Amino acid sequence: MRALALIAAATAFAGDGPEYNSQGQLLLPADYREWIFLSSGIGMTYGPGSEQFIGHPAADNVYVNPSSWREFKKNGVWPDKTIFVLEIRYTTTSGSINNGGKYQTDLARLEAAVRDKAKLGDDWGYFNFGGTVGGLLNASTALPKGNRCLQCHSTNGAVDGTFAQFYPLALEVAMKKGTVRASYFEKAPPASPAALYELIEREGWVRGAELLAKAKARDAKAQAGSEETLNAIGYALAAKNKIADATAVLKHTAAEYPRSANAQDSLAEILEKSGDRAGALAATRRALELLPGDSAIAAERRERVAAALKDRMDRLSR
Predict the structure, then answer these.
(1) How far, in Å, CA of 27 to CA of 20, rounded?
(2) What is the dihedral sign for C-alpha 137, 141, 142, 145?
């Protein structure tokens, strides 16, 4: 039965490449939302036409035909007959139970990028299908050669003339296959929390500290260096029984956030676990001192936190 299912799936996507009408216009793929979802962004304004969304950031969703995604995973290069669909939607904050952030609403614009050497030559072709305001087209003619989309992608696309730098899974494939454009690394984002954790787990805190320093040099507010991220990394390392690295991370966190009762509390916990009772006791005392003025800890929680800290002090003082 499993073999039959795989055959059926392969058959379903066998003809998922670009199709054209008798005038040579690209037909809008009716089932593109069943394709591979690559990523979504909010308020990205790198391309032409973004001025209509000023003050009201749009959301974009990117899909690629499944057969091309399967080929891309093999070698990190998009094959002929690849078609991307970019769905741009309006966003709003007000509505239902939402109290913050934004969610997607109506379709604003639909675009496509196609690699079809027989029809378009060596360059990618770009198509605009309009949107709900003005009407969505069923077919579209490729933008003229040398258009702004082609120029921007050719200059800034990280992988094979595409913006794979914004598609996490595609970028990961390209990194492993060595197909990422060298210039991408000049503007690559700071290390992510996941990248920092993986490096520390694999090579230790010293290497992690180097990566963190580079990330903060690029962006002083890099998420990898936030108290919440470092605290989570410390506990994750401790769970893997990497106590020395966990201790180093949490000592760094306490030093970076000297007014944080939580950072001292976490440090005390790992020091006690490592057998450093004196260090754990000192960190616990410091946490108690900081607790009343630490606004990051909700007032209704402070009494419970204080009780837990006092319990640890009593235990460590025996």
Answers:
(1) 5
(2) negative
Measured CA to CA in angstroms, residue 122 lies from 73, 101, 150, 183 at distances of 21, 41, 12, 21
Strands 139-140 and 135-136: unpaired
Alpha-carbon dihedral of residues 193, 195, 197, 198, nearest 10 degrees?
160
d(CA 189, CA 255): 25
Q: Any idea how long the chain is?
A: 318
Nearest of 83, 135, 148 to residue 109 by alpha carbon: 135
Beta bridge partners of 130: 136
Q: How wide is the angle at C-alpha 206 spanned by C-alphas 200 and 207, nearest 5°?
A: 60
Instruction: Note the pLDDT of residue 48.
Output: 56
Matching residue, tokens 């837990």? 308
Strand 130-131 relative to strand 135-136: parallel, antiparallel, unpaired?
antiparallel
Give pLDDT tens digits for 10-39.
334 457 999 999 999 999 999 999 999 999
Q: Based on the number of CB atoms within 10 Å of its own CB, is 54 exposed (0-12), middle (13-18) or buried (19 or more)?
A: exposed
pLDDT of residue 52: 55
Of 93, 36, 30, give the one whose Cα is nearest residue 59: 93
Residues 59/89, Cβ–Cβ less than 8 Å: yes
